[in-house]
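Weekly modeling sync, notes
Attendees: AB, CL, MP (scribe)

Item 1: holo prediction request
CL wants a bound-state model with zinc ion before deciding which constructs to order. AB pointed out that an apo prediction alone won't tell us much about the pocket. Agreed to run with the ligand included and paste results into these notes for async review.

Input as submitted:
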Amino acid sequence: MRRMHLMYHGIHDDASSQGHFDPVYSVSPKRFAQHLDWISEQERPERFHITFDDGDISNVTTALPLLVDHGLLARGVRVTFFITGGFIDRPGMLRRADVRTLAEAGMHIGAHGMSHGFLEDMDLESLRCELRDSKATLEDIIHHEVDAMALPGGRGGAREFEEALACGYRDLYGSRPGPDDGHTQAGWRNRVAVTRQLDETKFAALANWNGSAARWARLRHGALALPKRVLGNARYQRLRAVLT
Ligand SMILES: [Zn+2]
C-alpha cells in the first residue's frame, strides 16, 4: 500500500479566526471538511495519514471535531499532531490540556522541535537538546511514549536523521512532496503540504498524486529549495515571508 502523508497546519477561515492565520497554509474549515469527505469516500481511506504541524489552537477547536465527526479513525486513518514543545501554552497555540485532549481522542502526538529552529543550522549540542527536550515535554503531558517527529521547516538531512534515531524516534517525517514510496529525504518520509488554495478537485489530484498536481508540488518545492541553498536558511525565511 502506497501511503500518503498529508501535512496541514492551522484550520482558519481568515485572519480574524482564533489561532495563527497563515495566508498560504491555513485551510478553511469548509475546505478541510471537504477533504475529509473525499478521504472517507475512498475505497481505502487508511492509506491517508493526516498530519498537522506546529500546534495551532485550531487543531483542537476546529480540526478535532471535524475529524471525530467523520469517524476516520475507526476506518484506519491515522492522524498525527506534530507539536512544537516551546509553543505550548503560548497565545493562539495548544495548551497542555489540549494536547492531552487530542491524545485521549485517539490522535497520535509527535514532536516538532522545541523552538522550531531549523535543525540543520544547529551545532550538535543544540540539535540534541531540541530532539530530547521536545520528546520529553510531550511525554510528560500525555504520559505515553512519543516516537514520531516532523522536521521544523522540513529542513534536515542525514545528520539530523541519525541523531533523531539515537534519541529514540522511530517514525520520521520531512516535507519533500510525494507518496511514501521508499524515496526519502535522507531517511525522512515524504509528505505533501495541503495549502489554502486547494479546492476539492485539486486536493483529490494531489492526494492521489496525479499528473499536473504532483508536478506542480515538486516544482514548487524545487523552486523554493534553490534560493534556500543560495541564501541560507535565515535569509531564505525572510524572502519567503516577503513572497507569501
Ligand atoms: Zn512547522
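Recorded for review: The pocket of zinc ion is lined by residues 53-54, 112, 116, 152 (CB under 6 Å).
Action items: CL to compare against the apo run; MP to circulate these notes.
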